């Protein structure tokens, strides 16, 4: 059952000209208020210093009226997740994050809480990558080796956070981001949504909407790509 989904997938926690998470405040508060969230359980495993990372998120959310607790401080992870009001999986290195989720046996537990209980899920960057089918389309270096690239599959498509189109007139002769994403699509036959900075995906049950102030780029399984405007209904991507 996926009708309970209440998810926000951010391209990034930072946007030029804004404080940490500031650009997404309206989106975050919309999600939190939809479930009467007062305390957010933060998952800091994508960065090395879990305490510092949790403090960064706490400093951003507490002035808005939300408490922040770090999952790494909980002696019983299963109990913490089952009792959580909302979960926020932060960005960093996607390979490290996914490996840790496997090591702690958290994938099935998080998936169950989000898809069946309706636990609100916020992902940013790496946290967005692990919310999708797999981490194949991350931009990160494989500094760690997870047992599989398969991830939470809270949504049945892949996302490329921090998407940048090729620079017009560039003299760079290496592969572009577009070429790498097109390669994934060709091999796997699955769509990839390129999320530019400042954009996000809001999923409510079987409905998905592109949020932000700029377009996202959809790489299609049949080939080619399409620019999607803000507020576009992208619920078709939820169809397996």
List descriptors.
Class_I_gatase-like, Rossmann fold, seven-stranded mixed beta sheet, globular, four-stranded mixed beta sheet, alpha/beta, Probable alpha-aspartyl dipeptidase, 240 residues
Provide a descriptive summary of the structure in words:
This protein is an alpha/beta fold and 240 residues long. It has a single domain, classed as Class I glutamine amidotransferase (GATase) domain (Rossmann fold), CATH 3.40.50.880. It contains seven helices and eleven strands. The strands form two sheets. The chain has a seven-stranded mixed beta sheet. It has a four-stranded mixed beta sheet with strand order 6-7-10-11. The longest helix is centred in the N-terminal third of the chain and has 12 residues, at 50-61.
How many β-strand stretches? 11
Q: What is the name of the CATH superfamily?
A: Class I glutamine amidotransferase (GATase) domain
Helix percent band: 25-40%
CATH topology: Rossmann fold
Q: Write down the overall geometry.
A: globular
- Overall pLDDT score: 95
Taken as a percent bin, the fraction of beta residues is 15-25%
Number of domains: 1
N-C termini distance: 13 Å
Summarize the structure.
This protein has 240 residues and is an alpha/beta fold. The chain has 7 helices and 11 strands. A hairpin with a 2-residue loop joins strand 8 and strand 9 (207-211).
Protein topology:
Elements: E1 6-10, H1 25-34, E2 39-43, H2 50-61, E3 67-70, H3 77-83, E4 87-89, H4 94-103, H5 107-117, E5 121-124, H6 126-129, E6 158-160, H7 177-188, E7 192-194, E8 200-204, E9 207-211, E10 216-219, E11 225-228
Parallel strand pairs: 1-5, 2-3, 2-4, 4-5, 6-7
Antiparallel strand pairs: 1-8, 7-10, 8-9, 10-11
């Amino acid at each position: 059952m996926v009708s309970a989904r209440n998810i926000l997938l951010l391209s990034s926690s930072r946007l030029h000209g804004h404080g940490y998470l500031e650009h997404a405040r309206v989106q975050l508060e919309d999600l939190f208020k939809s479930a009467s969230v007062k305390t957010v359980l933060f998952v800091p495993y994508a960065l090395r210093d879990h305490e510092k990372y949790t403090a960064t998120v706490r400093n951003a959310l507490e002035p808005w009226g939300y408490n922040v607790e770090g999952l790494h401080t909980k002696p019983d992870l299963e109990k913490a997740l089952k009792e959580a009001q909302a979960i926020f999986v932060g960005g960093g290195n996607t390979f490290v994050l996914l490996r840790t989720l496997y090591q702690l046996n958290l994938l099935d537990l998080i998936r169950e809480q989000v898809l069946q209980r309706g636990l609100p899920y916020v992902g940013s960057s790496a946290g967005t990558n692990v919310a999708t089918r797999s981490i194949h389309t991350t931009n990160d270096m494989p500094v760690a080796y997870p047992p599989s690239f398969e991830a939470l599959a809270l949504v049945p498509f892949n996302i490329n956070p921090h998407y940048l189109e090729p620079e017009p007139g560039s003299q760079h002769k290496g592969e572009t981001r577009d070429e790498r994403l097109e390669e994934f699509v060709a091999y796997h036959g699955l769509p990839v949504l390129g999320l530019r900075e400042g954009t996000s995906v809001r999923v409510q049950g079987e409905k998905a909407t592109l949020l932000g102030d700029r377009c996202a780029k959809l790489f299609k399984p049949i080939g080619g790509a399409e620019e999607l405007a803000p507020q576009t209904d992208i619920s078709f991507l939820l169809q397996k």
